[in-house]
Fold MTTase N-terminal domain-containing protein.
Amino acid sequence: MQNLYIKTYGCQMNEYDSERMADVLSVSHGLHLVNDPVLADVLLLNT
């Protein structure tokens, strides 16, 4: 299983969008959300 790190900037809706993206990527690609970018295989920047 690969790890995913999401960094979110901007408004409250961006936070919601990041949570949804994490959920979708978890189901569709088996990515596991982590809190440390050093541990991540995939980095996603949401602005």
Remarks:
- The radius of gyration is 10 Å.
- The mean pLDDT is 97.
